[in-house]
């Protein structure tokens, strides 16, 4: 037990040691899904990760051919989603049904429009 507590004491948050300008360069190189995973690490990372404006998440586009699975937990931007458009679900009604149920479980308070 002593070993674990000493390991915890030695953990360092890498974002604390980088200037905001360097973080901007690093995070600009990430794919958006990777940047989203970074902000989900903890509240401190959520507040430090630059350039991830919350307004682009008002409209969510889902393409069945590109995205077979959605995350089971709500995305960090679920409070901002106002509309979701579904593409290429014509041949896969089961996936559409599963995605709709999952989206309902996310509890997006501003979601007012679903479209095809």
UniProtKB/TrEMBL annotation:
Domain F-box: 12-60
Stored Pfam families: F-box
Domain of life of the native organism: Eukaryota
InterPro entries: F-box-like_dom_sf, F-box_dom
Record protein name field: F-box domain-containing protein
Species the sequence originates in: Phascolomyces articulosus
């Amino acid at each position: 037990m002593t070993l674990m507590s000493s390991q915890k004491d030695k953990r360092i948050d890498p974002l604390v040691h980088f200037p905001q300008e360097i973080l901007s360069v690093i995070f600009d190189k990430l794919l958006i899904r990777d940047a989203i995973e970074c902000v989900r690490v903890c509240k401190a990372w959520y507040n430090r990760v630059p350039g991830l404006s919350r307004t682009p998440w008002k409209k969510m586009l889902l393409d069945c051919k590109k995205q077979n699975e959605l995350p089971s937990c709500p995305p960090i931007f679920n409070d901002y989603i106002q509309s979701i458009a579904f593409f290429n679900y014509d041949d896969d009604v089961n996936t559409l049904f599963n995605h709709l149920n999952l989206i309902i479980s996310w509890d997006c308070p501003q979601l007012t429009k679903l479209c095809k």
